[in-house]
Design brief:
The strands form 2 sheets. A 3-stranded antiparallel sheet has the order 4-3-5. Strands 1-2 form a two-stranded antiparallel sheet. The termini are far apart. It contains 4 helices and 5 strands, in the order H-E-E-E-E-E-H-H-H. By secondary structure, the protein is of the alpha+beta class. The relative contact order is 0.18. The chain is globular, with a radius of gyration of 15 Å. Helix 2 packs antiparallel against helix 4. Bound molecules: zinc ion (ZN).
């Protein structure tokens, strides 16, 4: 397992959905992040503790109706307004 092999077999970054615990390319996942200031947002840019959820499919609706997996991953309850906004997207 050389460094050269690792470069040649580069794959898109994969993250795990906190709802179904399946892995998927980052592009298929929505990233919740707890920013350093404590605010929770949906963003790919912000630094902080992150939690990924499948952007489509049942995972999103499950994440919206029962936010526990995300809240658990971020160690903080989700703000209600954030979930309302996500619900409107689907
Ligand atoms: Zn999922």
């Amino acid at each position: 397992m050389s460094a050269r092999t690792a470069l040649r077999t580069s794959q898109p970054p994969v993250r795990r959905c906190v709802v179904c615990r399946d892995s998927a390319p980052k592009s298929e996942l929505l990233r919740f992040v707890r920013r350093p200031d404590g605010e929770i947002a949906v963003s790919d840019q912000d630094h902080g503790r992150g939690a990924y959820v499948h952007a489509d499919s049942a995972c999103m609706s499950e994440a919206v109706t029962q936010s526990k997996p995300i809240a658990h991953a971020l160690r903080r309850p989700l703000p209600v307004g954030l979930l309302d906004r996500l619900g409107e997207r689907t």
